[in-house]
Amino acid sequence: MSSDFPELTNDRVLRLCRGEEVDRTPIWIMRQAGRYLSEFREYRKKHEFFEICRNPEHACEVTMQPLRRFDLDASIIFSDIMVIPQAMEMECVMVPGKGPTFTSPLDAPEDLDKINLSPDVNKVLQYVYDAITLTRKTIGGKQPLFGFVGAPWTLMAYMVEGGGSKTYSKAKKWLYQFPEASEKLLDALTNVCIDFLVGQARAGAQVLQVFESHADALSPELFHKFTLKLLKKIATQVKAKLGKDAPPVSIFCKGGHFMNKEFVDSEYDIIQVDWTISREQILELKSKVVQGNLDPCQLYAPKEEIQKAAREMLKKFEGVRHIANLGHGIYPDTDPEHLRTYIDTVHEETQKTQA
Ligand code: CP3
């Protein structure tokens, strides 16, 4: 299958994962396709969010938009973490100004009987695979393509809350009040994540990322009791199922400082970190590739400040195999030219001149 794809000419991200030298620090941006780009906003006027996700030509087009503008070293397939709850037969719509919203969130354990805990993702989410295959061919080897999933706890949090939340108190209530039902749901989500990541890799994804975006809601006790073993299982099983063809796998626990070092001893190849961690904490992760971590709000500053901040960030990662990125997704009101300054500064500062 993979022989049908164009040869990868920019392999910096993959080289880092293999422990090989790179000529400059690679960079890509979480949510690099999105509303901060006028061409995306134009596209969205004509097409509903999940319509774009479900149509491979549309998903490919919006994935390509940031690649046409910027000198990026990786791409990420346009999709959303909510495609898994949808595959489990929960209705989720994108409400402008509010974000993803579930029409019937999970209220009590009995509600688990109303959803499909073991969907055939290879059938229901085939459209994501088709989007990946088409996009990888369209990129033509100029960048590797990331596939991704939302991690089980993050997905559960949305499925119970019905959307975003400041406290995640409803979802955490499940962990304290219904631990068995919570485990049942988290286990089911874990299995779906594994199958879906394996399918994405087979469809052409060259790196896989697991987004635990609501890690910050968990105490160390809850993290250890409910999610760490599942996150580790995802990487282990994906690698075992794919064997020698397994791509590198990345984990992002947003706001979960104490969690990052738990993945040093795991099958994950890349640990994505947010902007709140120190150089000391980054150095603890040194045996892995570390990805991150400029504060997305830093891009609101004047360009000279962005250049300075980019240099300071690079210093924090000195001696570490580093993929530059933001510490979370780029905000919709960011000036794309400020992003360009960040990307170009990372390249200029780290470019090794040929001897
Ligand atoms: O370029 C890319 O990064 C690829 C596409 C991508 C999107 N969502 C597109 C998107 C990826 C990787 C995601 C992942 C995702 N989705 C996460 C994990 C990463 C993170 O940010 O923590 C999460 C938590 C979601 C759920 C989600 N989807 C939220 C909370 C929102 C609302 C955001 C907002 O500011 O309104 C979305 C919507 C969404 N996903 C948009 C895009 C481009 C914007 C919605 C729109 O166009 O109307």
Q: What quaternary form is this?
A: single chain
Q: Between the first and last Cα atoms, what is the distance in angstroms?
A: 39 Å
The CATH architecture = Alpha-Beta Barrel
The amount of beta strand, in percent, is 5-15%
Q: Count the helices. How many?
A: 15
Radius of gyration (CA) equals 19 Å
CATH first level: Alpha Beta
Low-confidence stretches: none
**Overall tally of domains:** 1
**CATH topology-level name:** TIM Barrel
- Fraction of residues in helix: 40-55%
Outline type: globular
The chain-level mean pLDDT equals 97
Structural features, described:
Helices cover about 45% and strands about 10% of the residues. Helix 8 crosses helix 9 and helix 10 packs parallel to helix 11. It has one domain (about 1-350): Alpha-Beta Barrel (TIM Barrel). The mean pLDDT is about 95. With about 350 residues, the protein is an alpha/beta fold. The site of coproporphyrinogen III (CP3) has 23 residues, from strand 3 and strand 4.
